Amino acid sequence: MNTDPIADYLTRIRNAVSAGHRVVEIPSSNLKKEVTKILFVQGYILSYQFNDDTVQGTIKIALKYDKLTKEPVIKSIQRISTPGLRKYASATEMPRVLNGLGIAIVSTSKGVMTNKQARQENIGGEVLCYVY
Length: 132
Known about the structure:
Order of helices and strands: HEHEEEEEEHE
Number of helices: 3
Number of strands: 8
Shape: globular
Oligomer: single chain
Structural class: alpha+beta
Helix content: 25-40%
Largest sheet: 5 strands, antiparallel
């Protein structure tokens, strides 16, 4: 059993990017699906597919690379709030990642969203991870 499934999700993506893989397959959950949708909308991944064949299901993520330099779009993806030390932020204290160039993914009472969306809707929540 995995004690921190979100950290496992982020680590699998980080390892696949550093190894130069095109596709990574990850065990599914509702929170992971929402984070995947945000990564797609923000342009960090090429595409995704949810497979609910098995009991848990899987998420297939096609990673995105720069066409000219072959550099990965995701430079860094790191877990912020862990099960041992939760990190919460109000709407006014919402973190800015790389002075607005990156995103923070936040779990709020209105669902999972980016730090910019949370600031616009004036709600706080648990800061899950930073992506840039």
